[in-house]
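User: two proteins, same treatment. go.

Assistant:
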Amino acid sequence: MSFYKIPQNYAPGFVPQRYTFINDAAAATLTARLTDTRTAESVAELVLRDLWMPEIDVSAFLRRMAATVPFETGATGLYAPTTRTMALSLAIGSDKAPDRIFLPATRETRSGEPLTSLPEVRLIGAEETDEVSVHCRTQCSALLTATCNGIPTQRTYGVAAEGVALFRLAAAEFPDAEAFDLHLTADGVESHFRYEVAETPAGSRQLAWLNEAGGIDRYTFPLIEERRYEIERRRLLLEESGYTQTEAVGEERLRIGSAYEPAAVLDALARLAAAPAVWAVTEAGWTEVDVVSDSLRIERPGTLQRLSLEIRPRQRGGRL
């Protein structure tokens, strides 16, 4: 008995990933054990009966293992958080497949590729933070140039990674900064990003979402177009007393609007509605939200466009 086919290392974990096993000993019952390689905790145990070539799709288990959230730990610099990948071990009987690392993604990515859907030129508020992830299997380095009052200052960073490296930029660490230039080199592949420091409008709301490449993107929506509070009531109709309320749950909803943006930015924001995870900044920090909009309205007054969408807390009765 042996494994016939297994997924590639660093494959996207949110699409079907199948292990195929040849049961040439014709065993009537086989037991497949899925384990988190990093914690040694059991993920699942499957009983396979009367199968000559069983095939196991592990994507549903990888979604459960995923622990990706916006990165808010530490100062400006390069990091390699293990929460940005899933490490899985699969064994059937005494046969064990090679361990695999998966990205929380829905498409294939290449070594050294930035894991972002937003363009390279971005805006950042003076008190905001941003992150850029890159597919990195060995070593990643970064050169950050902060321009303050026309004077550039450079800092270098480095980290060893096994799947994903992440650069965190905290603009508040660079008072009076006007712009940032970020050069990333991951597994020998270079990429460049430029940030212009801009004023953050009062009442704006920053969202973060897990994009299809497995990285987290952030964007500040400058407009709150509408805030409303919806109440869901459950009632019983009793013959003698009439309607009696048994439960009432309130739900806050926000309709937020983007700035007028180029098509590349709007394309990234439009994909936000289908993202597997979305967060919004609230008084309690990053709060997971549900994008209510099934289709996103994009105004087209000219070369620049804007987009609006509606969000609500993912937890019933939550607040924004």
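Protein 2:
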Amino acid sequence: MVTGFPRDGDRPSFGELEAWAGKGRVRRAAASEVANWRLSEADRAALTESGVPLFDELVHGESFRAMPGMYRLAYYEGTYVNWDYGVLPGSGEVRRWERDGTSQFVNSSVVLWLCSLQMVGGWFTRSTAIHHWDENGETEDQARAEIDDLLGRIGVADPAAIGDGSHETHFWPAVLDRWMY
């Protein structure tokens, strides 16, 4: 079972993120980079105090800059897919943007995005089942159970992040349901 977050709306600390992401793999925004962003104080503080963890499977780098229609937070550059994580001014909603301009809901706020990354990153670094899921049926079942538990925990923290479970419109169900394949 995944443990840790969220704790009554807390956000993960820099140290908690670094514990699983690795030393030097959590990047914080400078206060001046986000000072004029139309976000809640909690979301701006999350970016400057906690930071964004780099996670090879989901986040390759941070990029704190204002762009038309969003504030860019981070990006992923894979062999076949590339995307940006951005937050909508005013609402604080975090979305994943494809290079073609289409987007997918990720989390309701920056704080909840960091909590979700904390849960997923912590699970990924601790799980033995996910790294060997294809070795036998029992390990595959354990990995599937862990993923289902993780989706449930994200859903408790941020019900909108799971929504109706649609892979088309919601990032976490799409990513986690397909993690093993």
